[in-house]
């Protein structure tokens, strides 16, 4: 059992949880994730480690409520427990001093790119941040990103905050402005990562993405998380989750992630009904 | 009591059969297929043993159980004595009685089997173990000797559980580290409930805990802490690695990444370990087509295809590229699968999986094979028959074509010798290239059996004991010499 020691609502649907897990707090590096199972009947889901405090023995995760398990997780409060919390999993991000690196976070992907941006900054890079979301109140970690980035750009699809448009538009502008970009990290929804990869491809800028296939064990034992990179089969949980964006077959990943949509909907509806009942009782 | 019957009379008794659920019933549930022998049947079966002067069955058993010895105790109705006799060599009799391939081990050499059917050794083993469980007769051994040394056991499959139990009985402080959220390895996530009820595994694990063994789940050695950290920072004096061979192989044919294609490991893990059969009461989903195909001929393939049938597949095909006699699966399970209406497509090799517009599997293309010259394994090599391609309509494809060791520990442990196949290299007493690291089970064999994993765990425990004693002796002589 792993205790939630802090909870903060970052937006309507995005929650930050600080969880007691001293061993993971001590070992984790940028790019690592954990697998969480909330309760006995729960699914195992992967969530990136956004931050950690080795002294306090805590790990921070930032979760967007999209379906049954993430909604349940976000409904937990300070003092509650999650049943299973295992990690740190995945290969950590190789941190080099590239020179200038653009770190892009789309939606909850900002939580995943933040630890990488922080580590790259600590390694001496000039870090340019781009944080985007559909609309203003979905922008997360703006202050945290601002604190570590040399420059920070905000985009929203509806123009309610920052520049109107996509993160990839901002990336294209940066390239067009002629500054030398040595590497790009882009993490967010798969279509966003795909577009960013397409933007940098003609300029041969090293671009990395963190893939989010459906996982079960997270230790290389099921092959459910397999993705195609450079024409080869890779298990994202042990070979990744970070890969060379120019080699990734994004379309296949989009298709594979749809495998259970109908069942996920059933699960989600049952959960919503259950929550409604509870609220009715209150 | 000795057997009152003359050998000629014993030989006339036919082999007794387990009571089983009918095929029709059992494909609708996940309960155990076989209920085993009852006391009456077990007593008849035990009478069949010839009590040979030179009991070859013992030679056939990888852990050398005193087979005629325990059978004799059954005749005396001393069932607890019998199970304890087995336990001298095998710490998990209720499990082995269910899943061991006796037909290739003790029963194949049983003298009675020369002219008649062999003694049903496995069923007798299961009977006494179940009897003890049902009547709560197990007594936790009292450990009188305590040794002030710590051993880490990595992985809680049969190899790790056995090694831990043996070391704990010797008096060591043992901690098991398990990556998943629950113990048992393949016994829990792979072998289905209908062959090995989880309740039995729970009881066995509980007994091991009662020996004082500590178990950490959710602990991936190589990630949560490395093997060297366990030795240097956590203060363990030796480590046993029993991390199995859990990484699935894929065939490498087109269409493998379509939705609806699973490795048997993923499929069985979802259903057995995450209990997807109870979705949406449980949260892990599984999807199964009306027509499904499983590729492979081993126990894993058999378990996957029978599980798919129970999840409602109307047509469940088993596709295997060699012929039936070459199938490595246990004979009993092949028979069970056949009774359950599994359709066997032998000498058939898949060449392509075909998807629909939504990237879902809709069919699999296969070709017929024929047996050619024997290959390295001594089995005749299947070769394709030209122009024999055909298409089978299926919506789910499960690949069960073998597994290799999980690479995490090998990749994070300097100085550990690993073979080309990814298995950890050990000598005949389970020692690795690192002096205080021992290994066994599927991790060193690359996909074998429960009993061989247990054997390795036991031998490693004895060797760890020897090693730690010699370290201690060296220390003592060093202080004396000072
Ligand atoms: C390496 C990695 C890191 C991630 N980090 C974060 C993070 O920091 N914050 C965050 O909010 N989300 C993160 N995710 C995504 C998160 O795991 C999914 O949103 C979550 O599993 C959805 O579960 P659900 O039951 O709430 O929704 P569901 O309704 O079950 O699923 C919604 C969608 O999520 C995906 N999904 C479903 N089950 C799984 C599963 N077992 N594993 C992976 N994806 C699944 C599918 O594409 C599905 O269509 C990460 C995913 C991966 C692979
Ligand atoms: C579906 C299926 C059916 C089978 N049927 C039979 C049968 O009928 N009869 C038979 O004799 N054999 C059968 N086998 C084979 C048998 O199950 C294996 O040979 C046996 O389980 C091997 O035992 P093990 O202890 O070496 O490893 P495993 O049982 O694989 O256990 C290894 C454990 O180590 C854990 N682990 C892995 N890496 C780490 C790490 N880095 N840190 C911590 N823990 C880790 C794993 O999670 C797992 O729990 C079957 C196998 C399968 C897959
Ligand atoms: S070989 Fe068969 S008949 Fe002989 S002792 Fe063993 S089980 Fe009994
Ligand atoms: S999640 Fe099972 S192999 Fe990656």
Give keywords.
heterodimer; A: 282 residues; alpha/beta; Elongation Factor Tu (Ef-tu), domain 3; Rossmann fold; 2 domains; seven-stranded mixed sheet; 9 helices; globular; B: 482 residues; Fumarate Reductase Iron-sulfur Protein, Chain B, domain 2; FAD/NAD(P)-binding domain; 3 domains; five-stranded parallel sheet; 19 helices; 36% helix; binds flavin-adenine dinucleotide; binds iron/sulfur cluster; binds FE2/S2 (inorganic) cluster
Provide an overview of this structure:
The complex is a heterodimer of chains A (282) and B (482). With 282 residues, chain A is α/β, with parallel strands linked by helices. Chain A contains 9 helices and 17 strands. In chain A, helix 4 links the parallel strand 10 (126-133) and strand 11. Chain A starts with a strand and ends with a helix. The model of chain A has no long low-confidence stretch (mean pLDDT 93). By secondary structure, chain B is of the alpha/beta class. Chain B folds into 3 domains: 7-134, Alpha-helical ferredoxin (Fumarate Reductase Iron-sulfur Protein, Chain B, domain 2, Orthogonal Bundle); 150-246 and 404-481, FAD/NAD(P)-binding domain; 250-401, FAD/NAD(P)-binding domain, CATH 3.50.50.60. In chain B, helix 3 (39-47) packs across helix 5. The radius of gyration of chain B is 24 Å and the shape is globular. The chains are: A alpha/beta (282), B alpha/beta (482). Chain A binds chain B through residues 23-24, 27, 37, 41-44, 68-69, 83-89, 216-217, 219-224, 226, 228, 233, 235, 238, 252, 255-256, 258-260, 263-264, 266-267, 270, and chain B through 179-181, 217-220, 223-225, 246-248, 250, 252, 256-260, 262-263, 265-266, 269-270, 274-275, 278-285, 287, 358-359, 406-408. The structure holds flavin-adenine dinucleotide (2 copies), iron/sulfur cluster and FE2/S2 (inorganic) cluster.
